[in-house]
Each structure stands twice: as structure tokens, then as C-alpha cells.
Fold:
Amino acid sequence: MNSALNAMVADTAAPGDIPSLDSSAGAGFPRTKLPGVRLRIWICLGALVLLAALGLSPVWMSLWEIWRNDPLRSVGLLLVPAGGILALREWKRLGWELRGTWWGMCLLLPAYALSELRLKAAWLLVFDSANLNLFSPGLSLWLFASGILLLFAGPRVWRRTWFPLGLLLLAQPVPAFANQYLDLPLQNLTARAARSFASSIGFPAANRELLRLMFTPAFGMFIAPGCDGLRGAVTMGYMALIAGYLKRVSIPRWILYVSGAVLTGYVFNLCRLCLLVVYYRIALGHPFLEGVARQADYAIGGLLMAIAATLFLWILTRQPGHWRANPQAPPPAAAGDDEVSAVSRKLAVFSTLALLAASMGAWHLRDRQKSLADSVRDGDLSLVQLDELLPGQVGAYRLNRAWQEESNGRIALEAGAYETPGSNEVILGVWLPPGLHRLRESWRTHGEDPQFEETRQFLTGRGLPVAFDTSFYSDGVVDSIAGDVICTPRSCLAEERESGVRLLFTTHPIDFTNRGVRAISIFFRIEAPHADVSQAATRRELIAEARKFLQGADLSEVSRRFQ
Structure:
């Protein structure tokens, strides 16, 4: 490929054919006598960039899993192409100039190295029990795009594309620790607001009945979790962020736009929530209205979001600022055939890198496909087969019933209820999507807060001690204890709980994606009618029951079954 590129330039661009630059045609190449050279170079550059991007296949696969399984972060699917389009827009404004520097290779190589390193190591910035992976997929994309621009466009274009490149860093638009410190508290607040509003419009139901009515998907709508307004607020915020950039507003006004858009998204979601509760009140007891509850949810939410977006854009267009681009920057000094030769040399070297990267990326894609083909996927199982993956008996406890629960339109949880004569019912659950699931945080989205939390060790099947992250609940009607653990087919571990901020580098990150060895979140929950005794006594009784159940549970075997 290298020799072909050199021959292409040599055959088409003789020294005597290159006139002086015409700035009206762009600063990169002269307008006359070299249309073939320009076209071929741009075709080669576009093809090689696509080929080189294949080398980042671990990053693309990771992002696709995030966008597909997490609605809160799915907006990243739009931010990445938006960043690319805006970067090309700035490049076009500068005349498609090709004044690249070899320093771009110093960013391209780390982009691939970081993509590979993410498969084998993690560098975490830990905030108490939350963490931020500094080897984020967005960093690889930023290094890759910055390297391409520096290598071919040059430092001037790279500096002018600071905002589009910054969007690539937001491929995961909401950091993981936002779940604990922002999303979950908002979901808890939303759940409480739903209950309060329902009571204010005359729902004659007790607290427990309201919870079952409003926080189960059986009715067709699921008020929480996921209805805290954060998705709409994040979407509106990023829309304002991009609109402020395009309008070239001042920094203070830009901050005001983004803050106002986030607040607007959340306020309109509260309106949506109240309307959904009203719909609950009207539809209850009317089979037709109950049957179209999900469609009503989408219609109400979509209409309110459209109104919010229209209102925000109407206000934005009436504010000072200019939608047009800044005046054209002065073109660089004229160049001749040396520039064409320099571009061809960069293309030749870049083609070698692109081929190596593409072969490496193809290997990762093939390995991924083989892993999926050799494993049993959730979607390939019927509900009956999924139930059969649960152990039929755990010690003296027999499986009484099994069921599934949905999240975001897909089966996310498999659970079974176990009983033995004279005992309370014990629920054993498995979180099916890849990723960590904490039962305590899930119940907080229902408006339930634990009265007591601790890490407690239980002896499990085959005599293995396992540490569980446990919580105790009491709402005056039911007392319960629940515990979480993360298990692979080999071992189990509880969530680490250390206070403070620290950096943690590990060569054995928890793997939630590679089937056959991946970690799976498993939980248990035991409920008992509230008794007129102290919480400490009730907790001791439930802990004793949990100990009796778990000593017969082989959780690594459960993890193996659900790979």
C-alpha cells in the first residue's frame, strides 16, 4: 500500500504541475491541475481512518454494551458522532488544510495501547464505595481523534476543535459514581413524591399497598426507578451544551443555558410523574385503560419532553448571540509540491499502522463472537428454561416458585422463593445484565431506606466463607434482611468499603462481560411480619435464618449456571 500511495502522487503530481495556492479553494491544496490528487488523497485518508478505527474494537464493544444496556448513558451514542461532525465542520471552515505534524503519532499509539490495557487492568479513582475508571473508553477515542487531526490537519485545526474532541471524552456521558451520588437519591426522592402525590389525590391505600401498585411493572407502567428525570435532564443539558457552542455565547451565559436546561428537564419530569399518578387513579379498574398504560406512559413523557425542548430552543433563539460560524481564519502560508509529498508520506506510514490495528481489532471481534457463540445467552432461553437454572433445593429449603422481572424492556432479574417447614420465605435472586447490581440501592428507588447496614460473613455451600453486603429493613408492616455478593464460577467477593479518596491500580479488574468467567450479582432477601420486639432481636432472628439458608447455597455454582 505504501508504494502504491507514493506511485499515485508521483504519477499525478509532477513538480511543474503545481501552481501557487488559491486560498479560495482551501488552504490544503491548490485548486487547479491537481483535482485527481486531492480526491485520491481524501479517499485514502477516509478509508484508512475507518480501518484504523477498527483497532479500537475493545473500546467500541465496551461502549456498545453501555449504550445498549444503560438508558441513562445511551445519549453517548449521539455524542460521539456529534463530536466527529463538529470536528469536520471546524476543519472545513479552515479550508480542509493539511498541515499535519508527526507528533500525531505520539497520540495514536497510546490510543491503541490504552484500548488493549483496559482488557487487563483498571486504574480507579475511588470515592468511598464509588469509583471512576481513569482508563475510560472516551480517553481512547480522544487520543485517536486528536492523533488523526494532528497528523494530517495540523496543530491549528486541532486547537480549534477543542469542543468536538471534548465530546468524545463524554462517550460515557454520566460517570459511574453518579449512580450512587445523584441518580439513586433522585430516584428515592421521586418515589417519595409519587407516594405523597397519590395520597393527596385520594388513593385510599396503605403505604405497602401503594408501593405494590405503583412500583411493579405488572400494571404496564413503572414509575420508578428510571423515572427520576435524570435521563431527560442529561439529554436537555447536553443539547444546551452543544447549542451554546454553536451560538458562540459567553461562558457565563453558556453555564446558565446548561443549568436551565437541566432544571427544565427535571421539572417537566415531575409534571410527567404527577400525570402518571393521575392516570393510575383513573385507569384502576378499567381493563382497557390498564391495557394501554405503557403507551400512555410513552405518550405523556414524549409530549412533555417535546414541549420542554421546544420551549428551551425558543428561549435560546431569542437570546443574544450568533448562530453563524466565526469569521474565516486567515489561511496559512502557501505551499507547493513539498506539502503533497509530506501528506503522501504520512498516509504511507499511517496505512501500515491502520493495517496492524485493523488485524488486531478483527482478532478481538472474532474472539468476542466465539465467546458469544460458545455460551448460552439470556435471549436464547425461554422463561421456563431460565427458571430451571435456579437450584431446585438449597440445603433443607425447596424452590417453591420462580419469576422474572424486567428493566428497560428486557428481562433483568431471575428470582426464586425457597421454603422449608416452619421457616420464613427466602428469596434468591440473580441479576442477568452485565454489570454490578446492588439490592440496597435498588430498594432505595422504591422509597425504602435500610435501618442498618453492615458487611457480614456467612458460611456457604462446600464450607466456603463469603462476605455479604447486608441491610436490614423495617417499615412497621414487614421486617426483612437482604444481602448482596458478586460471584464468579470460582469465588465470591463483597463490595469493598473504605472511606476516603484513593487511587487503585489492579491487573485483575472485575469482569462483568466475558461469559464463562464473568462476575454476576447475586442476592438473598428474607421477610417476616413485623413483631413487637426490638429491632436488634428481629435482626438476630433473620440473620440466623439467613445463616441456615446460605450454608446450603453453592453461589459459585449459581454463577456458573447463569454465565
Summary: The first strand starts at residue 122 and ends at 127.
